[in-house]
Amino acid sequence: MVKLFIAFAFMAIVAVGYSKECCSAEDKQSVSSQWHDLWTATNGGGRVKIATDVFTRFFAKNPEARALFKNVRGDDFNHPEWVAHTVRIMNGFDLCINNLEDTKLFNQVVGHLSSQHVARIADGFDPNYFDLFKEPLGETLESVISGFNAIAWDNCYNRISEGLKSNF
User: Fold this and answer.
1) Which residue in 16, 44, 60, 134 has its CB near the most CB atoms, within 10 A?
2) Cα 73 to Cα 164: distance, rounded to the nearest angstrom
3) What is the pTM of this model?
């Protein structure tokens, strides 16, 4: 009986620890709601500003990554090719968030995005950049989302990042 109790207690501790690190239903709802309020209320210029802020922060922390974007004029944040590319990236992120609650579709979306990045390994892409993107994204979102739920965003971003690395 004591062994059964110990086993049950251990499983409960593991479950509680795991639940704090996963993208729970409550986390998904919070992230989806906050993102929806931000992204649907933001016009094209606002979206560009958010995307530019994220990438400014990302490149400040990872300057070597800028070379990965030479084909889309990542050297010039005002160039139309670069602006369009950053908005496409954020729209891909939008797809991930909007499908967090539909596991099958979410897996298809992140799998497709993952495949697109696998093709860029020869250019120097490292899947760890997905993890490194979390901090600048979080800093930007925290600055523009009222009541930013950092724990939910952290948990759900981890799920997105793991999906984006699924084909590596």
Assistant:
1) 134
2) 23
3) 0.86
